[in-house]
Design goal:
Blueprint (H helix, E strand, L loop, with lengths): L1 E8 L4 H12 L4 E7 L4 E6 L5 H10 L3 E3 L4 H33 L6 H17 L1 H12 L5 H24 L12 H25 L1 H8 L4 E6 L2 E6 L8 E4 L8 E6 L2 E4 L1 H4 L5 E3 L4 E2 L4 E2 L4 E7 L5 H14 L3 H32 L2 H14 L2 H21 L2 E3 L2 H7 L4 E5 H5 L5 E7 L3 H12 L5 H9 L10 E7 L3 E6 L2 E6 L1 H6 L6 H12 L3 E7 L2 E9 L6 H10 L3 E5 L4 H11 L3 E3 L4 H13 L4 E5 L5 H6 L2 E5 L12 E3 L5 H35 L4 H4 L5 H20 L4
Parallel strand pairs: 15-22, 15-24, 22-23, 24-25, 25-26
Antiparallel strand pairs: 1-3, 1-4, 2-3, 5-6, 5-7, 7-13, 8-11, 8-13, 9-10, 9-12, 14-26, 16-21, 17-18, 18-19, 19-20, 20-21
Helix pairs in contact: 1-11, 3-4, 3-7, 4-6, 4-7, 5-6, 6-7, 6-12, 7-26, 8-13, 10-13, 11-12, 11-13, 12-24, 12-26, 13-24, 13-26, 14-24, 24-26
Amino acid sequence: YMKSIFKIKGMHCNSCVSTIEKTLYDISGVNFVSVNLPLENVAIEYDDSLSPSLFKSILDKAGFDLIIDGDNDTINHNDVLIKKLVNTLIFGVPLFIFSMYEMMNNIEISILSIFIQLILCTALMIIGREYHQFGLNSIIRLRPDMNSLILIGTGSAYIYSIISSINLLYKLNITGFNKLYFESAGVIILFITIGRYLEKKAKIDTKKSLKKLLETAPMTGFIELNNQWVETNINKINIGSWVMVKPGGQIPVDGIIIEGHSFVDESAITGESIPIEKKVNDKVLGATINGNGKLIIQAETLGKDTIFSRIIKLVEETQATKAPIQKIVDKISYIFVPIVCFLAILSSIYWYIITNDLAFGINILISVLIIACPCALGLATPTAILVGSGIASERGIHFKSAKILQIMHKIDTIVLDKTGTLTKGDMYVSDLYTKRTENDFLEILCSIENASDHPFSKAIMKFTKNKQITLFECTDFETLPGEGVIGTIEGNNIFIGKIDYIKNKKITIPEDAINKDLALRRQGKSIMHCASDQNWIGLVALEDEIKPESEATVYKMQKSGLDVWMLSGDNEITTSHIANLLGIKNVVSNVLPSGKSKLIKKLQSEKKIVAMVGDGINDAPAIAQADIGISIGSGTDVAIETSDVVLINQNIMSILEALKLSKKIIKKIKQNLFWAFAYNIISIPIAMGILYFFNGYLLNPMIAGLTMTLSSLSILLNTLLLKK
């Protein structure tokens, strides 16, 4: 399957969303569709035998415009909306003032009044013809939407007023046609146009985080041509090219520093505002900002493969998905408009029978149709997801889908990997103990470890980088996960691993070495023993510092009611030492990668909702098994495909931020849905005339139009409060 996200024009409410999704799902070969109303886009997963042109032609028949080639049409659409707003104000404001003046002063309908209102209202009906065209298309397809309500409401008012005008002008004495609703039809279009313009502006505000992220993308870089550094488009930079970044310049690619020293602002990636020191052989990421030193970088990753591009894609895909709660709202919205139409007609007929006044019944019909607002329902959830995920991305937190955002706040158990999560993951050699000379021991040790990419191996090789040692050829190298490694040097089998691994090989370890092992493990260090055939050679102790924020994070997690666990492949003594320092009571040590996922399954079988936090590679099975998999890493080695939440900034305090943000977003969604439903539950009965029984109040259709507009705006403004 292919997956693409397209801009789409012509959407106005949640009924439009349902129509588009139903239309696309009817196409054979379409596997997944998700329409985002605030972002005005649609994500489609489809068989590669299909083409976007097919979707465009089918949606065109349904009254919607799919944009395939960029956003130019969307920009033009904004200009059209502004032009429509200006034209509507030119005719709508005078109509509103004139009609309100006559209404407040109880002025009788005159020939002048009829012609003024007719001209102004007709102009507004022409300006707002798009609403009527979309509404009619929806009715023809038997999928009425918000535009259908506008069409029936304003159309009824306009036609009734035309007949009344003829009746009054020519004194035909047609029963029931003695009032004008030109002002209602025209002013409703005025309020709806103003509302949609303000909605558009508010929606743009909800998208600012993503827009800001997109604008951060680098466009050019300096490469060497004819012994000169020339600025060129990033598309012309190749992998392996040397790229020069001036002080204060933007780094265009992911790569390695070949020359120079500087401090780099990585806030675009991690959300961390403090610049990070970078020197030769350090990795740098595209879209970050160089400090006051010139850097020469060798390009490793370009374009869509850079971590920055992957982040943008992740944010876009998250915002294109739907939270489970939204699917329920979609189902309600799908039947909402037909129900409103039924209630409007039923209440109109009822009041006509009761009062024998056709104008009264028409007033009820228009008010019910106009005040009902599926727009508010449609905006309640996606706007909160949009704003929330934007805030998260600014802080280096990336959710893979809207579903994850909704589930996250339910987590009651969190499982933390030790190395690289609670500790820095930057191992270093702290102690050596051997019966041979240090050089002899290191030559054997490094000849084997040089073939491995394990963090322990990297730490050992780094320790010997500046030492004069000879490396022997290693053959038959093999890694035994969770135990150690084996290889052959000059015919001798070399074993390197934990003390139990060496003992299992029936190799005798000296008593003083066993005591040394125990003493070092009690200090929280990891110990690797080395043996040649049946002879013990020595041990190496490796240490990993606890991250400064780990203790505070664990404390806050436990204080918030989370059940905190720590997993490690390390031995029990070392693991317990770290756990005691951090105040973690639930500890599992000596666990292999497969054992980590088994623990997650066990906790889930106890009806717990579990989040697993790891480095995203070694912990992939456990991350995949957990209800929420959280990957924490530098961004270049993060397993985005496996995890549900990616913490680019490596700060585990961000886990608490992610949990808090999820709770805030869900709270905002519930608030929005409450007000959207409450608005309709209260307003529709009032529009149907329920208050007329008690105090003689009858809702004016103009007030209905204004109220409907304000309901959608209130949802958008309430959502934007998330930014506070």
